[in-house]
Design goal:
Two copies of one chain form a homodimer. Helices cover 18% and strands 36% of the residues of chain A. Chain A is built from five helices and ten strands. Chain A has a ten-stranded antiparallel beta sheet with strand order 1-3-4-5-2-7-10-9-8-6. Chain A is globular. Chains A and B meet through helix 1 and helix 4 of A and helix 1 and helix 4 of B.
Chain lengths: 245, 245
């Protein structure tokens, strides 16, 4: 049996950096999804095995906390493990290290398994009892459990965009990371000069489809805490909470 | 002395694929820029050496021709070499191979060297006569020289966007590949289901800056040939010619 924790190394290319020369949060989102995909696939509960069983993993929530963003030409090491298998979801955690093996962040994610045809959730422990063998109880993820993100009922959107070709991924729906990219685009560059995103939480509520006209509503809870609600008409598609430091 | 041609291998991750499961053209654009950057840096005319001399390479034109787009989990091999060093520009070519070592495309690019302070072009052969040692005369790049791309003087834009955080790169201006990504976004998904982009040409005319409101004007020259002019007010920032097959 493979180790419970998988470790994956990524190199920070210049085109994955923002104007401050550091890797962007959406790129860390890509690394998270890629590490999760490889970890699951190596342990026989990845994309291929799920598809054979007519099922798919769907990312439902993600919370990322970063103490340092690696810069151009540096390494980012992602460790990932399954923390918990419940009836209708699994919790997967992540620890991030820099090239000097120092801890620079953590993330938690919640995944549902759905039936591809009915789009209904699958009872994970009865369907795949073997997942329990991979639950890592020794490793800690010292960031808060994800809290509810309230809706923003502002009347004036801060920004809007249409879902286009570059937003749609290999699964034929709006890519999870693209919501993050658009949400962060509401901020002015000055914000990124003065501060970094210390904590980013996102909950996915509905699937964005090609041609959807989405609107982003923002609410400043304080100087450093912002809620962003991405809506299609009156329906929340996803909600983020961002804490700057 | 290093070989004149550099060879770099890239792996196609799922998040770099579009809904057809193939790598996108903008991602190939990233690979092109990364291969050029490493090739130049390994031969001592890269970013660091240029910066020390108060100079920078600026991409002025790019033409890509693809016969096949590799899919998820496959390799894309990029070969690059300097084809020509003229007074105010160098021409760099690319050849693309798939994991089975079959040729799947070519690209040509034109680069100017500019003085970082004055933003004026530098006389390359007098400044760096050693670049001539790397000119590869044996290798062929069997795609047409780049032709002029006319302006599109339509009154109604097909699409518009504001330049935001995710568009600005480590050089603090709009990323060359982001123009490609936005331009391709004018097409409906049906187009990508039925056809592939066989040829893509782009000429960069001015630098997009944060907050710019850009508008894309399109002109269909035929069923398969489209011009896209990206403008800031009446000024063309960049122009593309796209041939579908």
């Amino acid at each position: 049996m493979l180790s419970k924790t998988g470790t994956y190394k990524f190199h920070i290319e210049s085109y994955t950096c923002d104007f401050t020369g550091k890797v962007t949060l959406p790129i860390i989102g890509n690394f998270i999804l890629q590490a999760a995909t490889i970890h699951a696939s190596e342990r026989n509960f990845g994309y291929d095995e799920m598809s054979e069983g007519n099922a798919a993993w769907v990312l439902s929530r993600l919370s990322i906390q970063m103490y340092e963003y690696p810069g151009h030409d540096r390494d980012l090491i992602v460790e990932t493990w399954v923390q918990d298998v419940a009836r209708f979801y699994t919790q997967r955690c992540f620890r991030f290290l820099n090239g000097e093996n120092q801890i620079i962040g953590y993330a938690r994610s919640i995944w549902a398994a759905i039936d591809i045809q009915t789009r209904r959730p699958i009872d994970i422990p009865s369907w795949r009892p073997d997942l329990n063998d991979y639950v890592e109880e020794e490793k800690e993820c010292p960031i808060d459990k994800m809290s509810k993100i309230p809706s923003v009922d502002d009347t004036e959107p801060a920004m809007g965009y249409s879902v286009r070709y570059s937003d749609i991924d290999i699964n034929k729906h709006m890519n999870s990371v693209k919501y993050m990219e658009h949400a962060i685009n509401v901020f002015e560059p000055k914000m990124f000069e003065d501060k970094v995103i210390h904590k980013f939480e996102i909950v996915y509520l509905a699937e964005g489809q090609f041609g959807d006209k989405l609107k982003l509503y923002c609410s400043d809870l304080s100087d450093t805490e912002v809620l962003i609600d991405t809506k299609r008409c009156d329906e929340s598609i996803c909600r983020c909470r961002i804490i700057w430091k």
